[in-house]
Amino acid sequence: MKCSVCGQELENEIRFLNHMMEKHGFRNPNIGTPDRNSRGY
Ligand SMILES: [Zn+2]
Q1: Which phi and psi angles does 18 have, rounded to 5°?
Q2: Angle at 9 between CA 7 and CA 10, to 5 degrees
Q3: Distance from C-alpha of 34 to C-alpha of 25, rounded to nearest angstrom
Q4: Ligand 1 centre from 36 Cα, in Å?
Q5: Ligand 1 center from residue 17 Cα (angstroms)
Q6: Distance (Å, rounded) from C-alpha 17 to C-alpha 15?
Q7: 8 C-alpha to ligand 1 centroid (Å)
Q8: pLDDT tens track for 1-41
Q9: d(CA 28, CA 36)
Q10: With a threshold of 0.70, does the pTM exceed it?
């Protein structure tokens, strides 16, 4: 996969998503990264 923002190539979707989040601050609700702080109440 290739980052559409900076053009960096990622090995797989996981790395791609991590890259997007870490480098570009993206948040993908499909990844399954629940916020422990905002988990219901
Ligand atoms: Zn990027």
Answers
A1: -60, -40
A2: 135
A3: 15
A4: 26
A5: 10
A6: 5
A7: 6
A8: 999 999 999 999 999 989 999 999 987 666 555 566 666 55
A9: 16
A10: no
**Cα(31) to centroid of ligand 1, in Å?**
17
Please name which of 20, 19, 14 lies closest in space to residue 32, comparing C-alpha atoms: 14
Residues in the chain: 41
Show the tokens assigned to 14.
């996981």
Percent helix, strand and coil across the chain, each to the nearest 5: 30, 5, 65
Q: Round to whole Å and give the CA distance between 26 and 21.
A: 4
DSSP class of residue 9 equals B
